[in-house]
Structures are given as structure tokens and as C-alpha cells.
Amino acid sequence: MGTISFHRELPKPSTSSSPTSSSTSSTSRTETVNGSHQFKIKGYSLAKGMGVGKYIASDTFMVGGYEWAIYFYPDGKSAEDNASYVSLFIALASEGTDVRALFELTLLDQSGKGHHKVHSHFGRMLESGPYTLKYRGSMWGYKRFFKRTLLETSDYLKDDCLSISCCVGVVKSHTEGPKIYSILVPPSDLGHHFGRLLESGKGADVKFEVEGEIFDAHKLVLAARSPVFRAQLFGPLKDRNTQCIRVEDMEAPVFKVLPLSWPSLIFTFFLSSLLSGLLSKLIILLHFIYWDALPDMEELVGSTSKCFSTHVAQHLLAAADRYALERLRLLCEAKLCEGVAINTVATTLALAEQHNCLHLKAVCLKFIALPENLKAVMQTDGFDYLKESCPGVLTELLQYVARIGEHSVIACGYGKETSLDGCDVNDRRVKPRLQ
Q1: Residue 248: its pLDDT value, please?
Q2: Does residue 117 lie in a domain region?
Q3: Residue 159 counted as domain residue
Q4: Origin, by domain of life (predicted)?
């Protein structure tokens, strides 16, 4: 990236003028917008003989606001080469005038030795600067990129396949002037306003009934945040009595996180419910719908236990899936991934299986399959629950255990001939594959 600076000083004032003076400055920045594309040519031997000037083209790809494509000529681009060479070019595939760019074409060595054939203009000075392509179809490349007889006996060709990498750097320039003002824009506080709306109860037009307790809410907010509530409140199969939604299988004091300003009797009951073991029913649903954030449970109940956080996240994940709250679901998955532990991982795995959380499921399986964790996890009550509720997961767990076992065998030298420093007998690096 190059930078050209321009600085202009105003004429100095004469002795008869005001003693004040001023100056301005601007900076012109010229840089490249880079992008790359990988192009594989399978069935090279079948492409031979298609004729001089006939090509195989990659899909178009976008760099710097322009479309580009790679052109490979198996029998060469020009008749004078008599099909002795293959040709390789990069072409401007969209409308453009005087597009200036740098290019790099690489034929990849597929033996793993890293001896790639690279033609690059990046990182070196060019006598005439970047190349200019004047119109759609303009090309840059090499008519005699590689002699065919050498190519066909080289490590660049493997399983009748060539692999080509292309990098394009489109030159862009812009001028920056002095900034005469700066306004700090605060982060969005939309959730704060909706949260205050929930607390005030103003304009509430729907009620939740949970274990005999009533909570006010707003239909439009619920419908905007949850497609499940939207169908329930405004869909063609909406409930007849949309003024009150009855929530089953949730304890009233834990349906909603209550701020300290709410009636002390309910809040005291909320705390006592937590301390008496009702964590399995904790659903912090309305708070998230309105505030778009989870409350600080550590501050709320004074617990720093990871186990506490995991149990909360487990039940919130089930609620998020029930009401199609994708952001809440991802927040819970992230929290559970961070808190994977011996005594909770089995129940988390069961939950991931039940609610189709594929990434979370993979994290749990890998954790359990580790030799130092497997036996301890199998002795937990959660593992008994996993066997009863999701027996199919045990087959996947065995597959993970088997993969780790295979990796251990290879590392010890019983599979392929591998030395302790990770190299095989030919001194090539060996990178074990572990899913």
C-alpha cells in the first residue's frame, strides 16, 4: 500500500495584515484491494486436444468491485506454440475502463513439498507500475506458462487434476482531508427502552398466566421477537383468547426476572425458589424478549458457581428453542460450550441432541471421548439420563472414542511408521486428523 501526501501552506501574511495564519493538508492514499480464487481442473487428460486457442474458464469471482475469471488453455493460446505449452491468463470479466491491478498466478505443487510455480507482481517494484486492463475481456498472463511434457510428469498434476490459485490486487486511490468535526454516536439503546416499557406495563394488551400469577406484556413486541408468539397472536390459527396466554410447566416466580423495584414479596419468593432447588424451572423469557440481553444472574442471586450458570443456560436453551428465539439460543450454546465440565456435560449433550444444536453436540462428544474424561463422565447421573433419553448418541460417542484411539496408535508408531517428532520415514510432516 502506498501513501502520497500533499501539503499546501498559504502565503505568509504581510506586515500590514493580521498576525494570524492558517494551513491545510490532505492525504492521498493508494492501496490494493486484494482477493483470491482457487481453480481446480479435473480430467486434464480429457481436456487435451480441444484445440489451440480453446480454453477452460473458472467461475467468475469479485475483487475490488470487478468480476474476474481464470482462463486455462490446454493446447496453448497461440498457434505458433504448436501446442507445446499450456497457457494461463487472468481476465477482466465485467465492464471496466483502465482497471489497474497486480496479479499472481500459482500452479500448486500437489506432492506436499511446497514447490509451487509462482508468477507474482506483489511485493516487488514494477517498471511501469500496476498493469492496466482497458475493457471487459482484457487479459494478463502467460502464453508459454508451462511446457506440456514437463507438466504431465511433474507433481503439479495429481490424479489427473491441476490446482491453480490466483490473487488479484485492484488499485484504489482516495484523498482524505482534515476532519473538522467528530460526533460520538452512542450504542443502540433500543433494548433499554423496550425493557422500561415492560417494567411500566403501559400499553400492555396481553397477559401471561403462570401458576396463578399474572404478567403483563405487549402483543406487538412478542410477535416481533418470536415467530411462535406471532403465529399464536396474529396467525390464521391464533388462539381464540389472545388476551391471556397460559404457560405450562413453569413456576410463576421464575418465569420472569424481577428487578428490585418490583413488589418485595414476589422478589423474595423468587430468591427463595432459586435457593430451594427450583433452578430447573428458571425461564428468563420476557426479560430477553424486551431487553435483548440476559440479566446478570451472578449479581441477582450472588452466585458465582459455574454449575449454576450451566443449569440456567440449559433451561434457557430449551426455552429459546421452544419460542424460536435464535439469538437467545446461540447465547446459551456459547455459554454451555464455555462451561463444559465432567458433572454437566452429559445432560448438555442430551439437550444438544434434543434441540439439534450440532456445534454444541460436537463439543460435548469430543470432551467426553477424551480418555481422561470418559470414565468420570460415565459415573455421573447425567450419563444415565443420556443413555435413557438419547441412546443413539452413544453410537456417535463410540465413534469419537475410536478416532481418538486410532490417533493414539498412530502417535505410538503402531499404524504407519511415524517417529516421535511427527515425521514419517521420508521426513515429511504428519498432521493427524481428528474430528
Answers
A1: 63
A2: yes
A3: yes
A4: Eukaryota
Residue type, 399: Q
Distance from the first to the final alpha carbon of the chain: 40
- Rounded distance between C-alpha atoms, residue 41 and residue 70, angstroms: 11
239: left (phi over 0), alpha (psi -120 to 50) or beta: beta
Tell me which long-range contacts 214-222 makes (C-beta under 8 A, separation of at least 24). Answer: 215/255, 215/256, 215/286, 217/286, 221/194, 221/197, 221/289, 221/290, 222/289
CATH code for position 125: 2.60.210.10
Q: Distance between CA 275 and CA 18 in Å, rounded?
A: 77
What's the average model confidence in pLDDT over 199-228?
85
How much of the chain exceeds pLDDT 70, in percent?
Answer: 74
What is the rounded CA–CA span in Å between residue 331 and residue 318? 12
- Which range marks the domain in which residue 88 is found? 27-176
pTM of the full structure: 0.48
Q: Which of 178, 146, 195, 131 is nearest to 44 (CA)?
A: 146
Instruction: Evaluate whether 341 touches 310 at the Cβ level (below 8 Å).
Output: yes
1 in Cβ contact with 32 (< 8 Å)? yes
What Cα–Cα distance (Å) separates residue 384 from each residue in 45, 107, 346, 350, 396? 57, 55, 9, 11, 16
Cross-strand pairs, 117: 107
What digits encode the pLDDT tens for the residues 49-104? Answer: 889 999 999 999 999 999 999 999 999 998 887 778 999 999 999 888 889 999 99
Q: Which neighbouring-strand residues pair with 70?
A: 90
Structure-block grid coordinates of residue 115: 514447490
Count: domains in the chain: 1
- CB 102 within 8 Å of CB 128: no
Element spanning 164, H or E: strand 161-176
How many separate helices (H) and strands (E) can be counted in the chain? 16, 14
Residues in Cβ contact with 152 at an 8 Å cutoff, skipping those fewer than 6 apart: none
Is 102 domain-assigned? yes
Q: Amino acid identity of 52?
A: V
Statement: residue 250 has pLDDT above 70: no
Q: How far apart are CA 269 and CA 275, in angstroms?
A: 10
Is 9 exposed, middle or buried, given 0-12, 13-18 or 19+ CB atoms closer than 10 A? Answer: exposed
Length of the chain as a residue count: 435
In whole angstroms, give the CA distance from residue 142 to residue 149: 17
